[in-house]
Each structure stands twice: as structure tokens, then as C-alpha cells.
Amino acid sequence: MGESPRLIAPSLACKESYRALVAEFAARGEEPIPFPLSFPNENFEAFLAHLAGCERGIGIPADFVPHSTFWLVEEGEVVGVSNLRHRLTERLLEEGGHIGYGIRPSARGRGLGKAILGLTLREAARRGIGRVLLTCAKANAASAAVIAANGGALESEGFVARRGEVVQRWWIEARGP
């Protein structure tokens, strides 16, 4: 039986696997979600230092909040990435929420979205974030199903002009392990 997926802090040990995940998103022409997937990683040590700074609120744009990035690892491969915003701004309340996540295209359809969100919710609870907001495009039925499977309750949906689409807002009560 294989290793269960686990959430880890970004590390040098997974450099090549992480880069392969980023390359998969690019090869498919997909938007890199969550947004830290778009951070330059040519100098991997500097990339890791930047992620660590983001967690402490160092080196982030003025309109950003501190945020933590996690990698979902299965059988030694990075199969997903999540990002946990430590608090919400007015814009994050409209779209973005507390958590963004993405699964490597070649690893989709195996329940890893549900796993990464569930594990990231535990991290939110560990940090004292009890009520977690997630948003997704109404057209993204897979993401809505993952959120619902993790206990999400749909609060509202509305058109977000800067995205040009209807965005759903879901709330989940985060609980620790």
C-alpha cells in the first residue's frame, strides 16, 4: 500500500518534483493556482526564502496579507500546492478567501483536491483561523465539489467584473486533527 498524501513545508528536497508540477501547469496553458506557483524559482534557495518571508509578512505587496504555502506530497512527488492567507482583506472577502489550492494536472481525479483542502483546513485551525472562506468560479464544478466534501456551506455567488465570471463564496468551520 502506498504512502498517504501529506502536507509539507516547501523544501529543497522536492525541488525537481515541484518544478515538474509548475511545468505541467504551463504545458497545459493553465493559470497557476494558487498564485505562489507563479513565483520565480530559478534560484530555488531564494524562492524558498521568499515563501518563508511571505509567511511572516516580509517582502509582500502592500495589499497582501501574510500567507503560508504548503506542498501535498504523495510517494515522494509534489502532487499539489495550497496557500493559506492568515487573514482576509475586503478583496479577499469578495474573491480569493483564505485558501487557494491546485493539483498537478496528471494527478487529478484521485481525490487529492479533497485531501489538500482538508489538510490545509487543519493548518488554518492550528493557526487559530476557525471560520475559513473559500471562493471558486461557479463554472468550476470540481472545486465546488471538493469544498462541499470538506464541509463547505455555500453563502453566496455573484459576478466579479475583474474576473468576468460568477464567483461562489463558501464557508467551512476549520477543525484541528
How are the strands of the biggest sheet laid out side by side? 1-2-3-4
How many E strands?
7
Mean pLDDT over the residues: 95
Helix-strand pattern = EHHEEHEHEHEE
The end-to-end span amounts to 23 Å
Q: Total number of helical segments?
A: 5
Share of residues in strands: 25-35%
**Which bin fits the share of residues in helices?**
25-40%
The biggest beta sheet, please?
4 strands, antiparallel
Look at the helices and sheets and give the structural class. alpha+beta
Shape: globular
- Which value, in Å, is the CA radius of gyration? 15 Å
Task: Give the low-pLDDT segments.
Answer: none
Please write out the topology.
Elements: E1 6-8, H1 15-27, H2 44-56, E2 67-74, E3 77-85, H3 90-94, E4 99-103, H4 112-126, E5 131-137, H5 141-149, E6 153-160, E7 165-173
Antiparallel strand pairs: 1-2, 2-3, 3-4, 5-7, 6-7
Can you put this structure into words, describing what you see?
With 177 residues, the chain is α+β, with helices and mostly antiparallel strands. It has 5 helices and 7 strands. The chain has helices spanning 15-27, 44-56, 90-94, 112-126, 141-149; strands spanning 6-8, 67-74, 77-85, 99-103, 131-137, 153-160, 165-173. The strands form 2 sheets. Strands 1-2-3-4 form a 4-stranded antiparallel sheet, sandwiched between helices. It starts with 5 loop residues before the first strand and ends with a strand.
